[in-house]
Amino acid sequence: MRTFARQWQRTLGAVAVLAALAWTAGVSGAQAQTVLRIVPQADLKILDTVWTTNNITSNHGYMIYDVLFAPNSKLEYKPQMVDTFQKSPDGLVWKFKLRDGLKFSDGSPVEAKDAVASIKRFADRIPTGKTMMQFTQEVVATGPLTFEIRLTKPFGLVLEVLGTPENPLFVHREKEAQTPSDKQITEAIGSGPFVMVKEEWVPGSKVVYKKNPLNKPRSEPADGFAGGKVAKVDRVEWVVIPDANTTTQALIKGEVDIIEIPTTDLLPLMKRDKNITVKVIDQIGTQAIMRPNHLNPPFNNPKIRQALLYAIGDQKDYLAAMIGNPEYEKSCWQVFICGTPLGTNAGIGPWATNTKEQNIAKAKELLKEGGYKGEKVVILDPADTHLAHTQAVVTAQKLREIGMNVDLQTIDWGTQSARRALKDPHDKNPRGWNLFHTWGGGMAMGSPLTNTPTPTPCDGKNWFGWPCDEELEKIRLEFPLAQTPPQQKAVVERLQKRFFEVVPYIPVGQFYTPIAHRNNVTGILDTVRLVLWNIEKK
Amino acid sequence: MHYLIRRVLATIPVMGVVAIFVFALLHLSPGDPAAVIAGDFATAEDIARIHKQLGLDRPLHLQFVSWVSQLLRGDLGTSIFSHLPVARLIGQRVEPTVALSITTLIIAVTLGVPIGVLAAWRSGAWIDRLVMGFAVFGFSIPIFVVGYLLIYLFAIQLGWLPVQGYVSIDEGLWPCLRSILLPSGALSTFYMALIARITRASVLEVLGEDYIRTAKAKGLAAINVLFGHALKNAAVPIVTIIGIGLTLLIGGVVITESVFAIPGVGRLTVDAILRRDYPIIQGVILVSSAAYVLVNLMIDIVYTFLDPRIRY
Lengths: 538, 312
What we know:
Helix content of chain B: over 70%
CATH class of the largest domain in chain B: Mainly Alpha
Number of domains of chain A: 2
Structural class of chain A: alpha+beta
CATH architecture of the largest domain in chain B: Orthogonal Bundle
Number of domains of chain B: 2
Number of helices of chain A: 16
CATH superfamily of the largest domain in chain B: MetI-like
Number of helices of chain B: 13
Structural class of chain B: mainly alpha
Helix content of chain A: 25-40%
Oligomer: heterodimer
Largest sheet of chain A: 7 strands, mixed
CATH topology of the largest domain in chain B: MetI-like fold
Radius of gyration of chain A: 26 Å
CATH superfamily of the largest domain in chain A: Periplasmic binding protein-like II
Number of strands of chain A: 21
Shape of chain B: globular
Largest interface: A-B, 61 and 57 residues
Strand order of the largest sheet of chain A: 8-9-10-1-11-19-12
């Protein structure tokens, strides 16, 4: 019996020692470096910033690449990788010189040929670049650090294209930049503030970056996307947490430092914690939109599209359903975003201020004038995407109120992405559609150059929905040739008036998305997307 | 041995059928990975270009032949999105999934079997009703609710365990266990309930047998009767349910993985389905099917040890 007891004591002792060793083994590997943990807005799947327009890939781009120009907090485009630049008096030749001593993270120097190849690849796919190339003769390197953009017409938005923060023009090594734009770049070598640690990348779970020792930031302080991009933490981890409640609890407990897009419902919980700050860094906001299918009845008729404006009215129902917090909501019918230099009330009709009853009456009148005969309206409802789903549900109700025959079809986002590419009417193809919803960043939606749903060329190659109006498109193409802000504003006012006659899409509200961060994290910049340079963690 | 070889060879046609079925189901269902890749503000032209680049514009039978010939070379393909090998992506998820599965089953079996035996022994008494009530609770309450409660109690209020995440065993046994305890605890409520019920039913049936009455008459202690005689003879259905539990767990438990941010096979599969990342979906289903077949084989072998009358 005693022997048995002694044996048990020895066994228990051994287990305790092993457990202590195991615990110590975990603890002894603790890192001395500062690690910033972010819960990003989505999972990073694609590394190529030209191959996809997804925001998360652009965020990845901002971590590891640098750009030629960037907007500061006043939306003035400032040089980043560029040292000096000049425009010829006739506005047809732009000359650029890169800063000395810039290096990619593999140690190779940044040269003009890298910038030129990057511009060409970018312009092959990204709409802003494509628009610039319509007015460009050639982009050419003229020396190791110098290159030129030679225009056919005085395109007034060269810096805006080179420095756009939406689908940015990141500078890759020439080797990668020469990859055809329909093939994906899988390398992640840039000259930005961080380097991706690819071997630790677990798609769907974690992305890891470390400080780039070869980064050469500008000497000015960081200001918006411009200025010195100094990495002030050693390591950044993007931690994908699918569950909103868990994300919130992780922030409260300090397991993560920043949530890029916290769920609105859980903001009160975060605000109650004195160690957490919730604030809006994107002062421009996001625009929610409804896109009709212009090819097929009933929305191939402009009167019936105009009826949608009255059906929506003051947008409050949409904002309440999507956001549910007036602090972050703004009713805004300005196509090019309220609170921006190009925001204007030109062309906005009485639907924005009528009572609901007045709007319903007017909408019914327009349906009658348009000859609406009860054709089915198929609304795509991606139930797995909160913003688009809530818009779809509200739209279904609004259209029923004005007497339309609605078929709300519940699907997922992937199916919406596929179905909206179909041009067939739904009586010929059951996967056809009449309306879908989405949203766009205010920076992108705030300019006729970058606002993807606005173009109305009649070649059927524009964005899904395929609006066609030569007059609207003609006015839109005047915008890049406007040389001064007052000229640009005058074009936008004419554009917006025509916009509300043609109705390529319908803005259903503007909203602001705060971030949430722990108070020991400082230096977060007010930019339209969260950038991680300049951030310190105490 | 012959039986083993026969069973292993029999997996080949099974895997073949699974491969055809999975491929057909994926490619015939709605959705387009090219559209998801291109992003929200891409044009139809962009999508068509990606479609072509990915080879998705080829006839289905050619895509199938291409995929099968890759499989026969041991290549599960590459993710359409990340361009990483599917085998690597699955490999990254195996450790967390296996750790979660094994820990869950250890907890569930260690607690579920004894309470099931106890309930059978005291059938009709308050302890039996308590155990059966717990079983109903375990089946009924959603796992994510249990998860949230455990997070609230052990991670937030007591601060003993982390809210989320998985720590690899490379970083130490205790840090790994610490990260897996709450999700395993949440998941094990369901399996504990299931195992307790099956154990109770199975043991109750055996307790009525003559040899149990004889064992009691011989003066054996209750614990020896229950665990030495009754449980051994009641083990076959219990082991079956443990095997089924293991295969379900290995296939991935997406809700638990989502609540606790565990990078397991379940989340990999669901993310891939939502994105239409065909190579990953196909790869995961094939690997899971193979695992399912192997686990069933192992269970069948275990039967022969539990019951010498079972021979193949």
